[in-house]
Design brief:
Distance between the termini: 21 Å
InterPro entries: Glyco_hydro/deAcase_b/a-brl, NODB_dom, Polysacc_deacetylase_ArnD
Strand order of the largest sheet: 7-8-1-9
Structural class: alpha/beta
Organism: Pisolithus microcarpus 441
Largest sheet: 4 strands, parallel
Number of helices: 19
Bound molecules: 2-acetamido-2-deoxy-beta-D-glucopyranose, zinc ion
Family: Belongs to the polysaccharide deacetylase family.
Catalytic activity: [(1->4)-N-acetyl-beta-D-glucosaminyl](n) + n H2O = chitosan + n acetate
Cofactor: Co(2+)
Radius of gyration: 23 Å
CATH superfamily of the largest domain: Glycoside hydrolase/deacetylase
Oligomer: single chain
CATH topology of the largest domain: TIM Barrel
Number of strands: 9
Length: 429
């Protein structure tokens, strides 16, 4: 076709828009979970945005990334703290706080008998405190990996979450409260995609260094921000750096949080400089799975959604890990925790349901998206986040509510956005 007739054709507009705007920046919707989930450029996704429900509630939360304290005007938190105080063993905070909260326990004298079942000292996961259950460091199902990621929501996790969706793979996401506050739409995506959300503290410090009320506040405000943003209150947590002892376990337990640890450490947090080591750690897990190590019970490995590197490692090893194990499931699924949140109506599949192909069970919850105060976006999403009472299956290609069905919706949405963009250019031209 002649150049002139090409330029005059509708097709040319598509080409021109593709050249002028490699991604549809003008069409970005950064007000809803679905809109935000379509952004694939990490620079764009990580740019701050306003989210009114969080902005309006700023005063109800401690400052981001600093050790949380109970706010002086928060009578709910104060009452709850007072109600659990009597359950906390009389164990002093460990080390000198300014240092130990950042992991330097140098100079701290600790009884070598490990009276506090301090994981950082001995990797102890079996507290002998009445009423406090053992930590979950492994899963009982044979040849099963309890699959999960710490430190999210990372602002640039869309490519990774898309990858998980394309494999219809669900995981347990251990979210940092300060990240949820900063990137609420990314946090909503976990629920929308059918993942399980657990708490990973407010500011990611070493918990055994903190006072009772600080440790309480680290967990409490993480639970509150997840409730505000996502609409659910988790019932599980993972201590940053694994730093937990009987005192911290008792506080978490009193707040209804199950402590989830790990047996294998990918050490992916070391970063790309340590890629050989991280690869070897993944290979060790894979070899162990292949040689029968988990033939009577499964395990958990520590991995992160911290950076592009940690997520890329998860992607590059996914196929090998998935074929070395019989089952990769969220930790809660491996434990049959079918009611993973305080609120009614949000369910996880049981282990039997999950391995039978049901990767998302629908919800009857009405409080998605923070109930009355927030996130109308989530309530309108097309997945298991609280819009329907019907059961759904994990076979995504033909279910109206599963996470993967959402991908096709997204394609429709982004196509629609592109069409709007093309129209816009047509108009401008
Ligand atoms: C507590 O005080 C802050 C201001 O410091 C305010 O924004 C917030 O709404 C108050 N919270 C309650 C529960 O009164
Ligand atoms: C727990 O076990 C340790 C070590 O065996 C012991 O020193 C400690 O007193 C025990 N604590 C309780 C509450 O039984
Ligand atoms: C299985 O592989 C793991 C990881 O390489 C290794 O530590 C373990 O000794 C192996 N066990 C057997 C029975 O070969
Ligand atoms: C998220 O990942 C990006 C890399 O893709 C990194 O630059 C950023 O610091 C991470 N954000 C957080 C909050 O961890
Ligand atoms: C890592 O970054 C590259 C380059 O931006 C991107 O193509 C890729 O999707 C990212 N991977 C993950 C898992 O986020
Ligand atoms: C989960 O449920 C199955 C039965 O469907 C059972 O065999 C298994 O022991 C349960 N696991 C746990 C941890 O309760
Ligand atoms: C799920 O969808 C795939 C792809 O369309 C199809 O091949 C498979 O048979 C379906 N599985 C079930 C259980 O419906
Ligand atoms: C897809 O689901 C609809 C109802 O939700 C059903 O009528 C239809 O038969 C299903 N298609 C396939 C291929 O399973
Ligand atoms: Zn962490």
């Amino acid at each position: 076709m002649h150049l002139l007739s090409f330029l005059a054709s509708p097709l040319s507009c598509l080409f021109i828009s593709a050249i002028v705007f490699p991604y549809p920046t003008s069409a970005q919707d950064r007000t809803t979970e679905q809109g935000e989930a379509q952004i694939l450029d990490p620079t764009v996704e990580c740019a701050p945005y306003q989210y009114p429900p969080v902005d309006d509630a700023q005063g109800n939360f401690p400052p981001s990334w600093t050790v949380a304290t109970i706010l002086s005007n928060d009578s709910d938190a104060q009452a709850r703290y007072q109600s659990i105080e009597g359950l906390i063993p009389k164990i002093p905070p460990k080390g000198r706080k300014a240092d130990s909260a950042n992991g330097n326990f140098g100079g701290f004298k600790y009884d070598p008998n490990d009276p506090d079942c301090w994981w950082t000292y001995s990797m102890c996961t079996t507290p002998n405190v009445s009423g406090v259950p053992d930590d979950i460091a492994a899963v009982p199902e044979p040849n099963t990996l309890g699959y999960g990621f710490d430190d999210g929501p990372n602002c640039s996790h869309n490519a990774f979450y898309d990858y998980l969706l394309s494999n219809d793979q669900k995981a347990t996401m251990f979210y940092i409260g300060s990240n949820v506050q900063q990137f609420p739409l990314e946090a909503q995506r976990a629920l929308a995609d059918g993942h399980q959300i657990c708490v990973h503290t407010w500011s990611h410090h070493y918990m055994t260094a903190l006072t009772n009320d600080e440790a309480f506040a680290e967990l409490w405000y993480s639970m509150q921000i997840i409730k505000l943003v996502v609409g659910v209150t988790p019932t599980c947590w993972r201590p940053p750096y694994g730093d937990v002892d009987n005192r911290i376990r008792a506080i978490a337990n009193a707040l209804g949080l199950m402590t989830i640890m790990w047996q294998f450490d990918s050490e992916d947090w070391l970063g790309i400089e340590s890629v050989t080591k991280v690869n070897n750690n993944y290979m060790d897990l894979i070899t162990a799975a292949q040689n029968g190590t988990f033939s009577t019970s499964g395990t958990i490995m520590l991995t992160h959604e911290l950076t592009n590197f940690t997520m890329s490692e998860a992607v590059s090893f996914y196929d090998q890990v998935a074929s070395a194990f019989s089952y990769l499931v969220p930790v809660g699924v491996a434990l049959n925790v079918t009611a993973p949140y305080v609120e009614d109506g949000y369910t996880l599949p049981s282990f039997a349901q999950y391995i039978g192909g049901m990767h998302v069970v629908s919800t009857t919850g009405s409080g998605s998206g923070g109930g009355s105060t927030s996130a109308p976006s989530v309530g309108g999403s097309s997945d298991g986040s609280g819009t329907s009472g019907s059961t759904t299956t994990g076979n995504s290609t033909n279910t109206s509510k599963s996470g993967a069905a959402k991908v096709s919706l997204k394609r429709v949405d982004s196509f629609a956005s592109a069409a709007v963009l093309v129209t816009g250019i047509l108009f401008m031209l």
